[in-house]
Amino acid sequence: MKYVIVGAGLSGLTIAERIANQLNEEVLIIEKRNHIGGNIYDFYEDGILIQKYGPHIFHTNEKIVYEYLSEFTEWLDYEHHVLSNVGGKLVPMPICIDTLNALYGLDLDEESMKKWIEEHKEDIDEIKSSEDVVLKNAGRDIYNKLFKNYTQKQWGTSAANLDPSVISRIPFRFNHDTRYFEDTYQGMPKEGFTKMCEKMIDNDKIKVVLNTDYKDYLKDIEYDTLIYTGPIDYFYNYKYGELLYRCLNFVYEVLDEDSYQEVGVVNYPNHPYFTRITEFKKLTMQDVEGKTAIMKEYPGFNGELCYPYPTQKYLDKFQQYKKEMDNEENVIFAGRLAQYKYYNMDLVVKNALE
User: What is the pTM of this model?
Assistant: First the structure.
């Protein structure tokens, strides 16, 4: 076997597809879970398509990524909208004119919003944390209502302790655009992400082994190149200690009602335990009468590994592993777990294609 890939997430599957169809070589994928697709895996229950690991929406400005994935799926024309429940008021996220109008009972336009922000934002010379990002761009009250408690729940620490990049990913708009993403290409795979993934590896040259720890499997086979997409600390047997990930626990239920909430995702920044509720029919636009499925997300340090922990302590620890990675000769490291970096879905695919 010339190529072995550890991990059947989107990164591993993209690389496997390219090896089989572009290089015309055989490739083995070893996956510890009982399914392919990584965290975009979805399944049906009571006729409703449910995403096992929380809501994933495809969006990108990368034409090459859109065209590549379009080889394996048709797209539903979906644009994502998120509301935040603040004291019983549902306000659009990310922050735009409509957010402030709904939250404070105002009637702002673009110019008056800019004036309002100028009056409320704090003067911070150097942005050192995610807290600083919000205070400088929106002010203390917006921070307290929409970000402070949500961030504490999501990360288990104050936004004051988190790198500015964590909250900088959330856009801030002086217009009425309530879409969560502004990307050129947006949508949901018509038959779901799992079906898309299955089509990606529909090639006799690709073999997949599930429910398997790669370390148990590799000792019995020969290969030339290993492509590793799993946790990097596990690859090196925790030589420099464990890297920390923020994890999520997902609790879903099927309800005997047509609709649960206005949009696909509603954030609950000030709820003591869960961060948001997803209603999947709103994402997939499925017409299933009398039933709907919702999911609540509970962050913690046990559960599915989702987000590399963005504090300097663990970023420094990763750099110790990075030095080892750079010295490997027949190993390629790909994906967010191996590179200890959060990537949106499109960048996972783009990096794998490159």
Answer: 0.94
